[in-house]
Design a protein that fits this description.
Chain lengths: 272, 313
């Protein structure tokens, strides 16, 4: 086989596999543009495409409210984690203190404990606090993240000793050192951290499922179940449009963040 | 803010503070405390306390509000391990975790090996293959429910056309399991793919050049160079995938609801239904601890292994 034929063969298979992998999304997007009547009749080859399902989804379902809720919740959690994880990671990277190893181990241990096993008492705690069906209940339990601390600590440890010594020489205090040197130096990890945490919590399902009861606080992923359970279930056009709407921020983040994710994975793999 | 007014605030102590005297060590311990306290408080309330409570609840019978009623020792555990439904869910969970876990990694390895060389256009395909990463279980469920729908879905209709009588897979115990495995593989491939791509690309080209000189076949190169070189990543992914698959919940809740006939009622889902459906919190707590033990073991294994990997590098 000649080289160019080999290449054509290579690209043919790649395209085929890529289409298969992308099919669920591509078919979903296509169906979201078709009238439900055509979908119900099995006419997926129909060319009656329009944005009517999206208009219907926005007008007849609370999907925008759900998306706003998810956005608020994911942003609050990411911000909360950013503050708490940065502080803790700073201590583990730059400070000496008693029981440092033990406390770090304590953080790491929490990564072994599945949230599923904490959910019953946490539900009761939230109820006692009066946080059921509220942003506080949806966000505060996730403000601490051992994974986040670990990730930021690894990045902070990369700050050259020279910079640390220099900042001590000119008398920067902890917060000045953190804001002027450590955070700018760890920029790419911080972006990875932010995108990853936002995405993770945009996708949260079990906790909002249990703790939210009204459209005022229900998040997108749980909202999707709600819509599916209602009579809109047979309205495939609207359902697919809703799913695609919820998918858009995810795809956007992956597109923007791909560079950072790959870098994060590589350094993480080397350092972990 | 309080911070700026108080000169003694440890956050404002110069980061020099050398640990030469006892007083300074104490001061540094204080500083560290300020940095760690917020995280420790949240972890104490929402991670450690609930873990301990779950352990305690698993030793009690509870009322419908989830309050402890009576100490029953290990009888909740005895009950779940003699409950055919729990044992069935345990078996089904393992079947699912192993097939979906291995499937994810095999597909990811296949895709990564297709685009690991520097051919033009591979960058585009890398983006395409990684694109399922980060898609939520809920969205994936809806996309696949549509595909597998017996009367309107592409796959559902395809099955009908090739003469499959039961083309409503969700209603069939094996079919429902197959759908969940397919969805799980589809969702998980992106992450494993990116990891394996990185591992494949870090194998030095020289190794292959030397192998070429020695006249090795591509089969020999695969088994003697590629597989050993990426094996740490493969193993790492295996553990990560297994932990992730054990926690699968969203897809079950949306696609099968644990059915039909409890064929897809995996442990994580059973914990949820026993607690929030049947209001049997003691039983649910002991099931949750069994899940914890499995996941903790897998995580411990991973940490040990990753350490070894670093050592070898």
């Amino acid at each position: 086989m000649t080289t160019s034929l080999k290449h054509i063969n290579h690209y043919f298979w790649l395209t085929l596999v890529a289409l298969l992998m992308g099919a669920p999304i591509l078919i979903g997007i296509w169906a979201s543009l078709l009238p439900t009547a055509d979908i119900a009749a099995g006419h997926l080859t129909s060319t009656n495409i329009s944005l009517n399902n999206y208009i219907a989804a926005i007008q007849t379902t609370p999907v925008l409210r759900y998306m706003a809720n998810s956005f608020i919740v994911a942003i609050l959690i990411t911000a909360g984690q950013f503050v708490l994880c940065t502080l803790a990671a700073y201590a583990f990277a730059f400070l000496d203190f008693k029981f440092k190893k033990q406390i770090f181990a304590l953080f790491l241990i929490t990564m072994m404990l599945p949230f599923e096993a904490q959910i019953i008492p946490n539900f009761q705690t939230i109820r006692v606090f009066g946080w059921l069906d509220s942003y506080a209940g949806l966000t505060i339990p996730f403000f601490a993240s051992a994974f986040g601390v670990f990730m930021l600590r690894q990045a902070f440890l990369q700050v050259p000793d020279e910079l640390h010594e220099y900042s001590q020489l000119i008398g920067l205090n902890h917060l000045q050192f953190l804001f002027k040197i450590v955070l700018p130096y760890s920029r790419s990890t911080l972006i990875t951290f932010g995108l990853y945490m936002f995405l993770t919590h945009w996708n949260d399902y079990l906790w909002p499922l249990i703790t939210t009861f009204s459209d005022s606080y229900r998040t997108t992923q749980v909202g999707l179940k709600q819509l599916q359970a209602q009579d809109t279930f047979s309205n495939w056009g609207v359902i697919m449009a809703t799913a695609i709407l919820i998918l858009l921020p995810t795809l956007l983040i992956l597109l923007v963040g791909q560079r950072y994710f790959k870098k994060g994975l590589n350094t993480g793999g080397l350092k972990a | 803010m309080e911070l700026h007014k108080n000169p003694d605030n440890p956050l404002l102590v110069p980061s020099t503070a050398a640990a030469s005297t006892k007083g300074r060590t104490l001061r540094k311990t204080n500083a560290a405390l300020w940095f760690l306290l917020p995280s420790l408080v949240i972890l104490a309330i929402f991670t450690f306390y609930p873990m301990i409570m779950t352990a305690i609840e698993s030793l009690f019978s509870t009322n419908v509000r989830g309050e402890l009623a009576q100490f029953v020792g290990f009888s909740n555990y005895a009950e779940i391990f003699s409950d055919p439904l729990f044992l069935k869910s345990l078996v089904n969970t393992f079947i699912f975790v192993i097939t979906a876990g291995l499937g994810t990694i095999a597909l990811a390895l296949f895709l990564a090996s297709m685009v690991s060389d520097k051919l033009r256009g591979n960058g585009f395909f890398r983006t395409a293959f990684a694109s399922t990463m980060g898609i939520s279980g809920a969205v994936a469920s809806v996309l696949f429910l549509f595909l597998f729908n017996p009367s309107v879905g592409v796959i559902g209709l395809l099955l009908k056309n090739i003469g499959v009588k039961q083309n409503n897979l969700v209603a069939d115990p094996t079919g429902a399991m197959i759908i969940l495995v397919v969805v799980s593989i589809w969702m998980g491939t992106g992450f494993s793919f990116l990891n394996l791509l990185g591992a494949l690309q870090s194998v030095p080209d020289d190794y292959y050049a030397v192998a070429d000189l020695a006249g090795w076949s591509s089969w020999q190169k695969t088994w003697k160079i590629t597989v050993p070189m990426v094996s740490p990543t493969l193993f790492f992914l295996l553990v990560v995938e297994i932990i992730g698959k054990f926690k699968t919940f969203t897809e079950i809740d949306l696609i099968t609801g644990g059915g039909p006939d409890n064929a897809t009622n995996f442990i994580a889902y059973k914990v949820y239904t026993d607690a929030f459906g049947n209001r049997n919190f003691g039983i649910a707590a002991s099931e949750a601890l069994v899940l914890t033990a499995i996941i903790a073991f897998a995580t411990w294994f991973q940490f040990r292994f990753t350490e070894r990997k670093v050592y070898y590098k």
